[in-house]
Every structure is written in structure tokens, then in C-alpha cells.
Design brief:
The protein is an alpha+beta fold. The protein is built from 6 helices and 9 strands. The longest helix is centred in the N-terminal third of the chain and has 13 residues. The protein is globular, with a radius of gyration of 16 Å.
Length: about 190
């Protein structure tokens, strides 16, 4: 028996989260809630087992999501076929996605002890910042940030090269923790 939640996430929020439709702030709030709330995590699990259509909708989302270790475990428990790319700071992954994969996960390894706020920047080959994920969830003990791009978007991408940059942010400054290069080839 789980303690009921004082402010349970609505079904609409759970579904939007599962489909990857929440904006960065709302998605992150939900993520943090799941971390601390077994009740809502169970509701999310139930939702996810409802129908394969939900999973395929997730797979056809367009957002890139920063996910928690707990959520990655849930994806595996649910039987999703994942292609994982662990990369060290300064490292490079040669990545792809095949028809057999439900999702790809970038595992950015980094020393994260004592880090309060971490942002993820995504840069194109010319160094332009195309996106910034602010104050992302991370597992300090495991020393990694988990990033799940839209499988559909990845599937339709031609060969490209993208850099993900981890930046530690505090009240007065920013410090680059590492660059991670993803060299993508179509599956
Ligand atoms: Zn809750």
C-alpha cells in the first residue's frame, strides 16, 4: 500500500509526459515528482501498460527528453528495445537507430558530485547552439545524464554530427563540464 499523494499528477499530465508533449519546465516538474512519489510513479506505470498505441505515440514524439535513471529502468522493464551510447567527456559516439530499436539513449558520463544545476546545450557542426535544456535531472551518484531523443526524428535524420555540452551553472558563473559528440548515420 502506497501512501496517497497530496497533489497527484492528473491523467492528462501523465499522458502528456509519457507522450513527450510537456514543455521543458512542466516535463521536469513531472520528472522530479516521479522521483519522490511512488504513488504517481505507479500511476504512470499503469498508464504505460494500457496500450501499445501509447508507446508508439511516444515513439513518434518530436521532443528530446532528459530522463532520470528511474525512468530508463521503467522503459526497460516495459520491454522497450533501447540502443544506449555511453560517452565520456571529450568522447564521441558513432550512433544509429534501426527498425528493431524503440529508442536511443545518450548516456553522458560526468563527475556530478556537488553539482546543483546542470544545463545541456546542443550544438551543430558549426558550433551554433540549437537548444538548451535548463536545470536537467541527473543521477549524481551514477555520474551520468540520460538523454532520449525522439526516435522518429532520429529515424528520419540523414547523417549528421551534433555536440551535447554539459554546463554547470551557479549564481554567478557557468562552467563547461564536457563536450560529447554524436556522429549519426542512418540505420
Ligand atoms: Zn504524487
Amino acid at each position: 500500500m502506497t501512501n496517497p499523494c497530496a497533489e497527484p499528477l492528473s491523467l492528462a499530465t501523465l499522458l502528456a509526459y509519457w507522450l513527450g508533449e510537456l514543455d521543458d519546465d512542466a516535463g521536469q516538474q513531472a520528472e522530479e515528482h516521479f522521483f519522490g512519489c511512488a504513488h504517481c510513479s505507479e500511476n504512470l506505470d499503469e498508464l504505460a501498460t494500457l496500450a501499445g498505441t501509447i508507446r508508439s505515440a511516444f515513439a513518434s514524439g518530436v521532443l528530446t527528453t532528459v530522463i532520470s535513471a528511474a525512468f530508463l529502468e521503467r522503459m526497460k522493464q516495459r520491454g522497450m528495445k533501447l540502443r544506449e551510447y555511453p560517452v565520456s567527456p571529450g568522447g564521441r559516439a558513432y550512433c544509429t537507430i534501426t527498425a528493431a530499436d524503440d529508442a536511443v539513449i545518450a548516456r553522458l558520463k560526468a563527475p556530478l558530485a556537488d553539482v546543483a544545476r546542470l544545463d545541456v546545450l546542443r550544438l551543430d557542426e558549426t558550433g551554433n547552439v540549437n537548444a538548451r535544456h535548463v536545470d536537467v535531472p541527473f543521477d549524481a551518484a551514477a555520474g551520468e545524464v540520460l538523454i532520449c531523443p525522439s526516435a522518429l526524428a532520429v529515424r528520419t535524420m540523414p547523417a549528421y554530427c551534433e555536440t551535447m555540452r554539459l554546463v554547470i551553472v551557479d549564481a554567478t558563473s557557468e562552467r563547461v563540464l564536457g563536450d560529447y559528440v554524436f556522429d549519426h548515420q542512418p540505420g
